[in-house]
UniProtKB/TrEMBL annotation:
Active site: 16, 95
Superkingdom classification of source: Bacteria
Domain Asparaginase/glutaminase C-terminal, chain residue ranges per copy: 217-308
CDD domains named among the record's database cross-references: L-asparaginase_II
Cross-referenced InterPro entries: AsnASE_II, Asp/glu_Ase-like_sf, Asparaginase/glutaminase-like, Asparaginase/glutaminase_AS1, Asparaginase/glutaminase_AS2, Asparaginase_C, L-asparaginase_C, L-asparaginase_N
UniProt family annotation: Belongs to the asparaginase 1 family.
Species assigned in the record: Pelomonas cellulosilytica
Alphabetized UniProt keyword annotations: Hydrolase
Protein name, per record: Asparaginase
PANTHER family recorded: 60 KDA LYSOPHOSPHOLIPASE, L-ASPARAGINASE
C-alpha cells in the first residue's frame, strides 16, 4: 500500500522544461542551454521538504529521442521502481515525442507503481513558465494513493499513455486524450480521479535488450492526395522491416500506395494501416491491409517495433 511519505524519484531527460530562453519574452522553447533536473526542482518551492531524489538520465530536445535513450530510461525506471522505499517516478521530458516515450514505457514495463511524465511548452526562463507547476503537479500524481501505471501530467490534466497525443504546437495545454477521456485532474495539488489508472502486461526489459543498431527498422508513410508507391519501394529497397501507413480517414490509402504496401508485405515487410486523423480507430475490413486499431501512427510504429523485436 502506498503511503504519502514514500520517496519520489525524478528522472531528467531534457526538453523545453529544462530549456532557457533567448529573451524573457521567448515562449517557444529554445532548449540549447539546458538546466539540470536539480535546478528544475529548486525552482518549485512547494516541493521543498518532500522526499525526492533526482537523477539525470539524458539531456536532449525530445525531437532527438532515440532507442538507446529509451533503453537507458526504461532500465533506470525499472531499477528505481524495484526499490521498496520508492513510491513513484516522475520523468521530465520534452513535449515533442513525450507520447512515444510514455507508450514505450507502458508496453515494456506496465508498472504497478506510478510513472508520471511531465514537460513544459515554455522554457524555464520564460515570463510565465509552465514547467514548475507541471513538475509540482506530476509529483502530487506520483504520490497520490492508488496511482499506478504510465501517465502524462500536464496543464492540470492526467492522461493515459495509450491515449495521449500532442495536438498543439504552441498552446500551454498542448495535449489531449483520445475521445477526451482523462485519467484525472490536478487541482491545487489534489488529484481528482476521473477514469482508471493504466494497466497492462509488461513485455519486460529483456524484450528490448538487443543493441539498438540491431533493432528492426520501422518507418511511417503518409497517405495524401496524389500519394504513390515510390517511397514504399525505396524503403523496401533500403531493407525496411516494417511500415506503418498513416492513412486518410479510416486508414484508407490511395490505390498506388496500397499496391506498393501489398508488394512490401509480399516481400516480407510487416505492414499496418493507421490514420492521420487526430482520433478514432481504424477497423480491420475484409481484403484490406491489417489495421492498427486505435493507435496513432507513432504508437503503431512502437507496437510494430516491439512485435518485430520478438521475432
Ligand atoms: N516543449 C518542448 O518540450 C519542445 C521541445 N522541442 C522538446 O520536445 O524537447
Amino acid at each position: 500500500m502506498q503511503t504519502l511519505d514514500r520517496l519520489t524519484v525524478i528522472l531528467g531527460t531534457g526538453g523545453t522544461i529544462a530549456g532557457t530562453a533567448r529573451t524573457a519574452g521567448d515562449g517557444v522553447g529554445y532548449t540549447a542551454a539546458q538546466l539540470r533536473v536539480d535546478d528544475l526542482l529548486a525552482a518549485v518551492p512547494g516541493l521543498a521538504g518532500q522526499p525526492l531524489e533526482a537523477h539525470q538520465v539524458a539531456q536532449l530536445d525530445s525531437k532527438d529521442m532515440d532507442g538507446a535513450t529509451w533503453q537507458r530510461l526504461a532500465q533506470a525506471v525499472d531499477e528505481h521502481l524495484r526499490r521498496p522505499e520508492v513510491g513513484g517516478i516522475v520523468i521530465t521530458h520534452g513535449t515533442d515525442t513525450l507520447e512515444e516515450t510514455a507508450y514505450f514505457l507502458h508496453r515494456v514495463l506496465a508498472p504497478e507503481k506510478p510513472v508520471v511524465l511531465t514537460a513544459a511548452m515554455r522554457p524555464a526562463t520564460a515570463l510565465a513558465a509552465d514547467g514548475p507547476q507541471n513538475l509540482f503537479d506530476a509529483v502530487q500524481v506520483a504520490r497520490a494513493p492508488g496511482a499506478a501505471g504510465v501517465v502524462v501530467a500536464l496543464a492540470g490534466r492526467v492522461h493515459d499513455a495509450t491515449q495521449v497525443r500532442k495536438v498543439h504546437s504552441y498552446r500551454v495545454d498542448a495535449f489531449e486524450s483520445a475521445d477526451g477521456a482523462l485519467v484525472a485532474r490536478v487541482e491545487e495539488g489534489a488529484v481528482r480521479l476521473l477514469g482508471r489508472w493504466p494497466a497492462g502486461d509488461a513485455l519486460g526489459l529483456a524484450h528490448i535488450a538487443r543493441p539498438v543498431a540491431l533493432w528492426p527498422r520501422v518507418d511511417i508513410v503518409l497517405n495524401h492526395a496524389g500519394a504513390d508507391g515510390r517511397i514504399v519501394r525505396a524503403l523496401v529497397a533500403a531493407g525496411v522491416d516494417g511500415i506503418v501507413a498513416a492513412g486518410t480517414g479510416n486508414g484508407t490509402l490511395a490505390a498506388p500506395l496500397d499496391a506498393a504496401l501489398r508488394e512490401a508485405e509480399a516481400a516480407g515487410a510487416r505492414v499496418l494501416r493507421s490514420t492521420r486523423c487526430d482520433a478514432g480507430p481504424v477497423m480491420n475490413l475484409p481484403g484490406q491491409l491489417p489495421a492498427a486499431g486505435a493507435l496513432s501512427p507513432v504508437k503503431a510504429r512502437i507496437e510494430m517495433l516491439l512485435a518485430l523485436l520478438a521475432s
